[in-house]
Write a structure and sequence with these properties.
5-stranded parallel sheet, alpha/beta, Helicase, Ruva Protein, domain 3, 6-stranded mixed sheet, flat, Rossmann fold, single chain
Length: about 475
């Protein structure tokens, strides 16, 4: 095969996704012997030079590389360094016909997973690649867990200046150290899970497990085994014993979201678990003692559900030992600017965007919105604005039209008609757009709009644009 060959080695379809192995060797016989040894278990790519290998790394998702150290052109050690610097997740096994321990030590020092001679038999090659794959799986699992932990740490409960927020946080801090059951009430998107995590972080044992279960997201026929676990053979498909969420939360906190969706027959089992501190797995023959702090949440009116026979009254009173009602975002509009800036920083980092802030006029527009989706809707909006932004500041013109319409429906200053507010909104957005096109050069913008500079400055002051300009220009 030619040097620029980059063929796939086809193998029968397998249920699991195959790892991709890149064989880099200038000797065709060595390449083909390694491909023959690995093609059954892996997807195998070939490269006859370091240059070809580096090009392939840019377009292929490689898991393991078998790398000849004695390559023409770009040498094997150079390829190893480039790979580990730019693709650290790839496990590299170096191969060479040089039987020197110092070469192996140097390769390992520079990041190689292992070292092997060219005359290894196929079984040894397969075992070595399998070990490299296992190490990569472990590395990726660690990376994923670290990312999840960072995400959980990032999803903190933002305490804004509004009295409604401070009141609910103060209550949470009082009850967090207590083992009592907490029922968190509120509309969807108000931050019920974040409140549950806050309660756990401020409990007596914050390092204990925090197990969150969204009951609405679990298929109805799997809810019981998910919560309580099951024994092997207890039902069709139960090929092994499964530990339920109650046991996994032992010593820590169990958060049951959307508790109002729990079926009546399971409500009885939940009541027993909370009252007696014990559960029984599906198919089990003896009770299992449990020790956890229950935090439940719902956007359902549980009192009404009790009256309608959809929720057990005894469970309802057992859950609402300490009720915490999360205010809707429209009830805490003072918090909108701080929440928006928090999400702006989060998604600026995530999308690697240098968005410095949100203009005051845009924040005022956000404050005047109804927010039917609450904090989740605000977060989704800021994520979208940051993702598509190519400017240092988010301004009124970046907001969707429904936010401006909501502003018009509100109450403006005394003596200002709906038409006046509509005209002012249009004028503000038009001037902001013109300034942005002129890179916030006020003189150039006045010339473009064909109005006196003094007129433009007066309008900017009246419409609250002057402060935006100062920030963007760094005045």
């Amino acid at each position: 095969m030619s040097e620029r060959e980059a063929c796939y080695t086809h193998a029968p379809e397998m249920a699991d996704v195959k790892k991709t192995v890149l064989v880099v060797d200038d000797d065709e016989a060595t390449r083909e012997s390694l491909v023959a040894a690995l093609r059954r278990e892996h997807r195998v790519l070939r490269a006859a030079s370091g240059e070809t290998a580096i090009q392939m790394l840019q377009r292929e998702d490689v898991d393991v590389m078998l790398l000849d150290l004695n390559l023409p052109g770009i040498g094997g050690f150079d390829v190893l360094n480039i790979t580990k610097e730019n693709y650290p997740h790839i496990e590299v096994v170096v191969i060479s016909d040089v039987q020197e321990l110092s070469v192996a030590i140097e390769a390992m020092r520079q990041g190689a997973f292992h070292y092997m001679a060219k005359d290894l038999d196929p079984d040894a090659v397969r075992l070595l690649v399998a070990a490299a794959c296992e190490r990569q799986n472990l590395s990726r699992s660690v990376m994923r867990l670290n990312a999840e932990m960072a995400e959980q740490n990032d999803r903190e409960f933002v305490v804004g200046p509004s009295p409604a927020t401070r009141e609910v946080v103060e209550l949470a801090r009082k009850v967090a150290p207590l083992p009592a059951t907490v029922l968190i009430l509120g509309e969807s998107g108000t931050g019920k899970e974040l409140m549950a995590r806050l309660l756990h972080r401020q409990s007596e044992n914050p390092s204990a497990p925090f197990v969150a279960v969204n009951l609405a997201a679990i298929p109805k026929d799997l809810v019981e085994s998910t919560l309580f676990g099951h024994e092997k053979g207890s039902f069709t498909g139960a090929i092994r014993q499964q530990i339920g969420k109650f046991e996994l939360a032992s010593g820590g906190s169990l958060f049951l979201d959307e508790i109002g969706d729990l079926r009546l027959e399971l409500q009885a089992k939940l009541l027993r678990a909370v009252q007696e501190n014990e559960i029984e797995r599906v198919g089990g023959t003896h009770p299992i003692k449990t020790n956890f702090r229950l935090i439940a949440a719902t956007n359902v009116d549980l009192e009404r559900a009790v009256k309608e026979g959809r929720f057990r009254e005894d469970l309802y009173f057992r859950l609402r030992i300490i009720p915490i009602r999360m205010p809707a975002l429209r009830e805490r509009s003072e918090d909108v600017p701080e929440l928006a800036q928090f999400f702006l920083r989060r998604y600026g980092v995530k999308f690697r965007k240098d968005v410095q802030g949100i203009a005051d006029t845009a924040l005022e527009t956000l404050r005047g919105y109804w927010w039917p989706g609450n904090i989740r809707e605000l977060e989704n909006l800021i994520e979208r604005l940051v993702a598509v932004s190519d400017k240092p500041w988010i301004t009124d013109e970046d907001l969707p039209v429904e936010f401006h319409v909501a502003q018009l429906n509100g109450h403006g200053p005394a003596g200002e008609s709906l038409l006046d507010r509509a005209v002012a909104t249009f004028e503000r957005n038009f001037i902001v757009r013109s300034l942005d096109k002129a890179e916030w050069n006020v003189t150039a913008t006045a010339r473009t709009l064909d109005i006196p500079l003094s007129t433009l400055k007066s309008k900017m002051k009246r419409l609250g644009i002057r402060e935006i300009a100062k920030r963007i220009r760094g005045d």
